[in-house]
Structure formats: C-alpha cells, structure tokens
Amino acid sequence: MRVRTRLPTWFLAALVFGAGFMFAPFIPWMCMALWLGMYARRIHEPLTRRLGGRASLSATITVSLLLVVVLPVAAILTSIVFDAIALVERLVESEEAKAVLVKLAQRNGEPKPELPDAHEAAATTSSMVDLLVAQGDRAWGVARSLAGMAARLVIGLLIMVTGMYSVLVEGNRWYIWLERHTPLQPEHFRRFGEAFMETGRGMWWGVVGAGALQAIVATIAYVAIGVPSALALGLLTLLFSVIPAIGTAIVWVPVAAGLALTGRPVAAVTLAVIGIAVVGTIDNVARPWLAHRGQLQLPTWVVLIAMFGGVELLGGWGLVMGPLLVRLAKEALVISREARDPATAGPPVESSHAS
Q: How many CB atoms lie within 10 A of CB 23?
C-alpha cells in the first residue's frame, strides 16, 4: 500500500502564491468572465437542452450572441476615449481649439464669432510643429503607452471571452473541484461564491444604473439650454460615465466652454452648475445607492468608500474590485463570528453555482 505524505506547507504556499501572482494582472477580466458566464447560463442551459445536450455548441452560440452586443460597445467606447484624449490635447495646446468648441455649441443660423485670421493661424500651426519637434521623445512615450494599453485591452478581452465559454462548458466541474480542494469548508466556499455573485449584480446596478441617470439628466439639460445634437451628447455622457470621477465632465465641460465662446455665458454657467451639482452628485451618491439596491449587502457609505479607495489604489478597475474585496471581507467576518457564537448563524445558504 502506497504511503501518502503531505507536502511541506511552505512549498505549497509558495506555489499557490506564485500561481496567484501570475493571475493578478488579469483578475478583473477573470471576474468579468465569471459574472457574465454565470448570467449567460440563463441562455446557455435552455439552448443546450434544445440542441440535444451539445454544451459546446450551445456555449459557442451564447458567447457569440453576447459578443454581438459587447464588442461593438467596447469598440465605440475605446474610440470615444481616444477621441476625448485628442480633444483635451487640442484644447490645451492649440488656439484653434476655439473653433472646435464653437462648432460644438453653436446652433444653426447663429453668426460665427471672430476667429484668428490666416496669419495668426499660420503662426499657430508653425508653433505646433515646433512643439511637436521639441516634444518628440514625449510623443514617442505616449505612443508606446497607448500601444501597451491597446495590447492589454486585446488580451483582457480574449481572457474574458474564453473565460465565459469555459464557465458555460466546464463551470460546474471547476466549482466542484475548487469546493473539494480549497482549505475552506464547503458551506463557507458556497457563501463566498454567493457573495461574489451578489457583488457582480450590485455593481451592474451601480455602474449602469447611475450612468443611465446621469445621461438622462445631462440630455434634459442639453435640450433645455438649446445645445445641438443633445441626444448624441447624452449617449456620450452614458458611455463616459463608466470612467470614474471625471467621466461625464469630458462631455459637458467642452460644451459649456463652447457656449461661453458663442456669447451665451448664462447657458454656459447653467450647464456647469448642473454638471457639478446634479450630474456629479448622481455619480457620488446614486451609484453606491443603486449598488446597494442591487442586493449588495453593504451600507451605501461603505460602497462609496470602497469604490473611491479601489479607484485610488487600482485605477478604473478599482470601481468594481474595491467593493468585491470589501464584500468578501464582510462575509469572512460574519463566518468568523458565527464560529465563535453559533446562535448568530443564519439559515443555510442555497448554492446556485453547481447543478
């Protein structure tokens, strides 16, 4: 009979830590794949039954249907982000940005304000060329940074798509294997899984719901003030709302500046006040409140701090990862308390992860 021996604890810990370290750069994408894959099972499982149990074919169809929606939105959002970066650079470096702002806010039939004449424009162009030559190294660094961001985005999307497919086809086997091999008790593992899914649902309400409210308020303001293309600007507001803190300002700040340049200072100030006091308040207050309404079992104030702290430490992904870590920590504290005082334990948690 073969004698089974345990691995040294330090060796096991080193290997697990090393594996986790390899996953670390893409943990947010992996979380997105798990959340989307679990929700996509509502489509995948009935479709699998209709296809006679062919899970792989059903998963391929399900993921393809999701990509029809996700990829165009991702492409549009990426394009808009780069356009916004280019717009900000033109505003900072070029006097010709006045023409862009005027066109953005000017209604049809209004007289065009005076702009620099041909000689001034030529001088400005020459200055821009000199600036680009002088800042060649910086421009090259920016280009490399953008290329790196694009590469990480492509890799992240690949991980998310393949992860969604794997969750649909092999998710139950993964869950059973992890439940058996993690040092957690099965009941605790199920509770952490429920907390994980709960966070994804709450963040969907918080991010998408708050963005929709911001877009509605901003669109009403554009229409009331008389800004052209109000619906298009409202759509941009919705898309940019996913960028923490300054997202919607990328839209309404240039519009307010354009209103001021076209001789409408009252409208410009009004839009600025609405952007700061109303749209900004929605982002800071309604987002965590909606996340809580999405059955995220954290106080609104805690969700707000977790979002801001996550953004501060992790960047844009911290908007989701911050509340996730706090929610898992809360569940760990509850489990620890129940172990010390069994009278505080609630009813058993029903798991929806494995069928």
A: 11
Under 8 Å CB-to-CB from 108, ≥6 apart: which residues?
228
What phi-psi label fits residue 111: left (phi over 0), alpha (psi between -120 and 50 degrees) or beta? Answer: beta
Which of 325, 34, 336 is CA-nearest to residue 185? 336
Shortest CA distance to 355 belongs to which of 109, 176, 92? 176
Cα–Cα dist 35/290, whole Å? 18
pLDDT band (50, 70, 90) for residue 352: very low
Cβ-proximal residues to 82 (8 Å cutoff; 6+ apart), any chain: 146
Residue 353 is classified by DSSP as S
**CB 62, CB 50: distance < 8 Å:** no
Cβ(173)–Cβ(14) below 8 Å: no
How many other C-beta atoms are found inside a 10 Å radius of the C-beta of residue 55? 15
Q: What confidence tens digit (pLDDT) does each residue in 289-309 have?
A: 776 667 778 877 787 788 888
Q: Is the pLDDT of residue 245 over 70?
A: no
- pLDDT-derived band at 137 (thresholds 50, 70, 90) equals low
CA distances from 175 to 23, 38, 182, 186, 351 (A): 18, 12, 10, 11, 11
In this predicted structure, what is the pLDDT of residue 68?
78
Q: Which residue has the higher pLDDT, 108 or 283?
A: 283
Q: What is the largest distance, in Å, between two alpha-carbon atoms of the chain?
A: 95
Could you tell me if residue 341 is left (phi over 0), alpha (psi between -120 and 50 degrees) or otherwise beta? beta
Pick the more confident residue, 1 or 167: 167
**Predicted local confidence at residue 115, as pLDDT:** 47
Residue 167, both tokens: 């969750």
The pLDDT confidence band at residue 91, using thresholds 50, 70 and 90, is very low
Residues 6+ apart with CB under 8 A from 45: 355
Q: How far apart are CA 315 and CA 61, in angstroms?
A: 33
| Residue 104: closest CA among 274, 271, 254 | 254
H or E, element range at 91: helix 55-93
